[in-house]
Structures are given as C-alpha cells and as structure tokens.
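Q: Two folds, back to back.
A: First:
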Amino acid sequence: MNKPLPPGMAPDTLVDLHETAAEWFTRRQEPGWTSADERALNAWLQADPFHREVFDSMGRTRQLFGQLKQYRAQQQAPAQAALSPAARARPATAAPAQPWRGWWRAVARGPAFASILAGVLVLALGGGWYAWDNTARYSLDVATARGEVRDIDLPDGSHIALNWDSTLKVRYYPRRREVVLDQGEAFFQVSADAARPFTVDSGRSQVKVVGTAFNVRAAPPRLIVKVREGKVEVCPDRAAPDGPVLVLGPASGVSVDPSTAQHVSVPVSADTVGDWRNGQLRFKRSPLGEVAQEVARYLGRPVTLAGPELANLPVSAYFSTSAPDAFMELLPDIAPVRVRRQPDGGWMISRR
C-alpha cells in the first residue's frame, strides 16, 4: 500500500503514516474483517519495519481511548436521567460507524475530553517518532580473521577498510550513522552529510565526523586515532558530560588509554595514515613503543620493551605486514637496539 519511507521523512509524512495505521487498526476491530483484509494489512506491515512500529503503538493508546469513552458516558448520564421514562425506553437510532471522526467531534464537548485526546496524540506521535528515529535503515556486522583485510562499501558512498582480527558493527539511522569498532583497526573514508553525523564508538571513546578520511585502531593497550584529511572530533570518554572534546585536523593524531580515558597527542605523517591497506607500513620517526605495538599486531605475539625509556625512541623504516619476524631481525640495523626472540614466539627489545 505505502512505499518504504525514505531516511529524510518529513514530520507531515509521519502524521500521514499514523493516520493510515489508525485506519488499519480501527478496521481490524470491526465486524466483517476478512482474510483478504488481513493479507492486505500484512503486506502493508511488511513494506517497511517502521509501519509495524507505528501500528503496534496503536494498541498502547487503547487505554487512553477507554478513558475517553468513560468520560463521554459520565457526561451523558445527567441528560439521560432528565428524560421521561418513555423517552429513555425508545431505542436510539444507529449512526454509521465513523470511530475516528466521532472522537474528533467529541473534543468540543469539554476541556477534559480535549486533554485526554491530546494525551493520546502525544503518546502515538511521540512514541512513533522515537521508533522511527531509532529504527536502523541499514545494518552490517562484520569480522575479519587473522591475515584478512576486507573492503566495505556503504550505501551513502562511504568506505571502510577493515584490518586483521577486527570486529565492526554499522547502523544507519534516519538522522545519524553509527559504527562500533569492538576490536582491531579500520580506515574510514566518510561521505559528507551534515544532517547525519558519522560516529565511531570504541570502548568508552567516540570519534565524530561529517566527511573525512581517518584511521582508528582499537588494539590494546591504546586506542589510536589518526587523521589523513578533513577533521574529526574525539571524545575520550563519551559518558563524561563535561569531558574534553579534541578536534583533530590533517596529519594529527591522539592516543587514548581505554581504562582511564587519559590521552596524549601522537606524531602523524598524513601520507602514512592507513597505509596498511597496501600490505606495508611506513614509519617516519615513529615512537618505538608504537612500532612495537604495530609489529605485535601482525606477529600475533607480544613485542616487549626492556625499559620505558625506549618507548619514545624514533624509528624510520618500511614494514611488510606479511613478514613481521624479518622486520624484527632488521630492527637493530635501523635503531640503536638489540632484539631477542622469546620462548613464546614474541620479541624483547633492549637498548644497545
């Protein structure tokens, strides 16, 4: 009967949809409802998930309509009592069944009637609007295995590249686009849409953008956000109403401690953001602590620093994501360190 609602549905269209749902709901309660009517109703309900949300909300208003009927009976009682016994005995002339028009005409009978009906409309429209705004029009759950990189095209033209061992959820609502990166790493190229902000939640932190390209890594022990182009807002702790909101532009980044939401800036070269998509990482005076974390991700084993003073040692090098052990063996040639393989297959880095 109705076509699926577009994401940008106007309030007037929402009211029309509630009227249609109300007509279906009322007809279904009347005698003469047939199996053909039921099939037609089911077709309308299945045309869009929001149709069912609105139709189901009609049932929640029945109690308020019951109050309307009770009020009308109370208002009519004094007039009935004033009639003669003969007049009360005469049967009333049946009027055509027009339930919704009847309710609207009844509003004029008194302020309490209007108040109850207003409550009905607020419940129906308010509940329906909330359901519409929180019903996802597009959903995607995806996970990658070790050694797997996946490219994802989204319906708005945005693109996500998902790195190894990553878990991602995408939900597009009428007024917002939400992504949850539970673990792993992803590079985002977001199509601009000021009316529908794009957010990436990871742990207690959130990244918010309108249109840009950036990288998020949710791998212990830090959450790291790096921006290639455009701007993003990073909220280290979205549950803290007065917490800081960091604005990052091109060639900037931040590292967040997931347990405390403490954060520090990290150096970024814009042309290296998301370069893992090509199977190679390029480090440009990157801190050794970050390099060790990157290598450990592809190694699948820990890479440990012998002392905290090594974490800020700058490293410039190329790294193939398919050969982490080879990179570790070459590390002493590009930095003043020693490396030692551990019994568990990991590596220990110490100062030379």
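A: Second:
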Amino acid sequence: MSKGHKSIAGYILEHYDKAAFMTAAKLGATVGVSESTVVRMATELGFDGYPALQRALQDVMRNKLTAVQRIDVTSDQIGDSDVMEKVLNLDIERIRKTLEESSKEDFNSCVDKIMNSKTIYIIGARSSASLATFIKYYFNLIFPDVKLVTASTASEMFEQILRIDHNDVIIGISFPRYSNQTVTALRYAKTHGAKVIAITDSKSSPLVPYSDNVLIARSDMASFVDSLVAPLSLINALIVAVSIRARDRVTETFEKLETIWDEYEVYSKSDETDKE
C-alpha cells in the first residue's frame, strides 16, 4: 500500500465504528488525504467504488456497535440541529432503498406460504417485538390460528412452538443487534419442517440460513434507537397483499366486527358534540 492508503487502513482498523459511516470526503479529510485517494483505495481492494466498501463495512459493524457507539455515530452523522428533518429524510431514503432491493418473487412466495399454512407463528424480540405485535393484530383478523411467540426464557419459547410442523409457517423478525432467541426459534422450526420467513436487514443476517424466503428492509439506526420505518412499510405491504388474497374472508370478518363495534360503542364518533 501507498502511504496514503496505509493511513486510511489504519484509521479504519482503529476507528471502525466511525469510519463505516463516513463519506469518502470526510474520511479523507480526517486522515489527511484527498477524497480521490480514498476512492482509489476502495477500488484497489476489489470494490466497485467507495460506496460499496462503505456498505460492506456497515454490514460488518452494524451488529457489533454498542448503544454508546451508536450514539456517537449518530452525533457525527446528524449533529444537533435540524434533527427532525435529517431523521425523516434518512427514513425516506431507507424506504427507497428497501424498494430497490426487494425481491417480488420472494414477496409473492411469502404471501403464498402464509395463505396455505394451518398455523402462523410470529416472533420478534426486543425492538422487533412491536413489529411482530403489529402483524399479529392484523393477521388475527384474517386467519383463525395466529400465535405470537413471546417468552423471556428459551424454555418458554420452545413450549410455544413445540407443535410446529410442515403445515405451519413462522415469521421471524430481527435487525441489528440480532436476537439469538429469534435465530434459535427459526432453526427449530426449520428442522421440524415448517415454512420459514425472515424479515431482516441483509443477506448476511443470522436468520437467513434457516429461512425459505427473506424479505430485506433497511433498518440502520437513529442513535441507540432502531429505525423501523422501512420494515414497517414492508410489513404493511405484506398484510395488504394477504388481505387482497383473502378478500372474502376479510370482508366477512369486518362486517361482523362493524356490528360489534357499533353495538358496544368501541369507537368515538367525531361528528357528535358534547351537549352541556
């Protein structure tokens, strides 16, 4: 390596948590070399360009960053001004990239598996638990047997998926830092013949080896907070696609629900005003 390339490599090795999220210009300025030197180094390492090297670094580092490191990275990326605008724009970009990288074949195959399964199991731990609950709520209105796997210990989890077999499908959701519990559940389901769907952030995710279909959604991070906007948008699309396939069943369900909601005044009527 040239002297400049050695300087870049040294910085990446010592400050991988920051380098993985730096632009070529910022990395060059930090090290004291030109932006073109950084780009040339990426090319000489076998990448198509610096963005490809940056993505590779991010994939490797994303699951290793501690919460404190995440806060530091976000401070460098966003700063403390116009936070709302920057975070929302980053989420818009994540949705755009998710759409570009999504496989329509995998998506349609997931819909087929869900429609043809006897029991639907859904698991998502930690921040992904909110996504799992969201899917369960809507699938429960469409299908007769939907199970949300929630457990604080491995033994409790296995008790909930004990009877899973080839007639069933399990949907596992996990993003960096990946949940061992979710990985273990998918591995168990796979060995017992169940159909396995993973919703995660990359093909290098530990969920992928045990999955029949993988739905990729960009999550990345906003400080110590996981950005789940793109995954939620993808999940919305999955629910809508399933509801279209099961239109008659959905219509019948909601006709009954509307009667119940009216009878028991489940929802507030905004067109009514309080009378004193």
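Q: And?
A: The two ends are 82 Å apart (CA to CA).
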